[in-house]
Amino acid sequence: MNSKFKKPKAFGEILDHTFSLSKNRFKEFFMILIVFMGPVYLLQAIIQMATGTSFFRDTGTGGQWYEQILSNLDSSSGSFDSSSLGADIGLIVVGLVSFLLFPVAEAAILFAIQHIKKEEEYTVSSVIKEAFQRFWPILGSSILFGIILLGIILIPILIVAFSGATLAAAVHPVLGILVGILLFIGFAVGVGLLITRWSFYFGSVVLDKVTPGFARSWRLSKKRTWVLFGLYIVFYLIVSIISFAVQLTFGALLGDSVLLGLISNLASLFTTMIFSVGYGVMYFDLKTRNDAEDLKELIEDYQSI
């Protein structure tokens, strides 16, 4: 077994292992995502060009070069109108296909990390094949998780809105706003912790063939919830910073162009790879802590001698 997987890791060690794996196995991990999402992003670009979107740059309004750049930046800030029909269609296509393919790509990365952990040889095609063998359990569990997610997010929002509006009408508007903010923060943390406890269903479904995997996820994440929650926040901040930097840098120069979409999608693949590898490292760390897998590996190695 790979030595980096043998013992439980602290917060910083998980981050360090994530980045070292992402660096050392970048080619394999990124290729997995390209195989799944490359054709989809190409289709999106074709749809955008077919509906009139410029490939290199949609020139902004304004006489001077800096005025055009500011106009391009404003046009790429996320507003939608009838002129962005191609981008809208492309986003819909990517969204629908991503819902089906991204989980399988992430499963393939999990299988690759498992092979690395066991110091086994693997290829991109072999882990993709393993991932597709778990397609239906992954799809069913992901849909169920999405329904649970919708419920635990929607209910607190309704409670916060009703409580704030009631206090604002009955007592004072400022009090209603303050109570609403406090309730929102409290519910946000609570929902985040619940999602963290259940989020490792995916690794259970993929690697341990436990469907839907929520009970196992709850057991694995016991006593590690706050650490895992903090790791999720760190990964989210990393993803957000990279995405914002790409949009700010290239969006100012390229506007709402097809090339900007391709660059943004490549950046999305990169951040998805980091998050997927981080999730895998976190999951195997939980298994080491709770399932005593390091001890099992030592016993198996001893018996094989």
Structural class: mainly alpha
Principal-axis shape: globular
Distance between the termini: 15 Å
Runs in which pLDDT lies below 50 for 5 or more consecutive residues are: 60-69, 79-83
Largest β-sheet summary? none
Looking at how many chains there are and whether they match, the oligomeric state comes to single chain
Radius of gyration: 23 Å
Strand content: under 5%
Number of helices: 12
Average the pLDDT over all residues and give the rounded result: 82
Compressed to H and E, one letter per element, the order equals HHHHHHHHHHHH
Helicity, in percent? over 70%
Overall description:
With 305 residues, the protein is an all-alpha fold. The chain is built from twelve helices and no strands. The protein has helices spanning 11-24, 26-50, 65-75, 85-117, 124-132, 135-170, 173-198, 201-207, 214-220, 225-254, 258-291, 293-304. It is globular, with a radius of gyration of 23 Å. The two termini are 15 Å apart. Residues 60-69 and 79-83 have low confidence and may be disordered.
